[in-house]
Design goal:
Blueprint (H helix, E strand, L loop, with lengths): L1 E4 L16 H5 L6 E5 L5 E6 L7 H9 L10 H8 L7 E7 L5 E2 L5 H9 L4 E4 L2
Parallel strand pairs: 4-6
Antiparallel strand pairs: 1-6, 2-3, 2-4, 4-5
This protein binds zinc ion.
């Protein structure tokens, strides 16, 4: 886990699929798990990304950073929504490759924008 403190530098790599990789994205190997914690370290919510569910909050931040076609729920935003307005202190994202080893789950610009807007202090992700 690499820890970042906000404000986040914006050199984040987009998780947006390049053209032709939609089929690959639909396989389970790109599933990312996000977890939100409060200040005391209690788990508030955990959620996966979805390739079928949409939400206005996802659409809002996708538009805001110029990726309006990224309408399906990302794990981070899904987890944030599950917190139902409770203050989130830390968010973690994790992804594992076919061998079960940690893989890059750095939040994309859309989720970074949401994380920043919500004032979440700590972002951690597998690399
Ligand atoms: Zn995202």
């Amino acid at each position: 886990m690499q820890q970042l403190n906000l404000p986040i530098n914006l050199e984040f790599v987009s998780l947006r699929p390049s053209s032709g990789s939609n089929k690959e994205m639909a396989t389970k190997k790109y599933h990312i798990l996000a977890k939100c914690y409060d200040k005391k370290g209690n788990l508030l919510a955990a959620a996966f990304n979805s390739y079928t569910k949409t939400h206005p909050l996802q659409a809002y931040f996708a538009r805001k950073v110029g990726h309006p076609h990224c309408e399906y729920l990302h794990a981070e935003i899904h987890a944030i929504l599950k917190c139902r307005g409770k203050p989130i202190h830390r968010i973690t994202t994790e992804r594992y490759d076919a061998r079960g080893l940690p893989a890059n789950a750095q939040p994309c610009p859309i989720c970074q924008e949401a994380i920043k807007a919500l004032g979440i202090k700590i972002v951690e992700y597998t690399k």
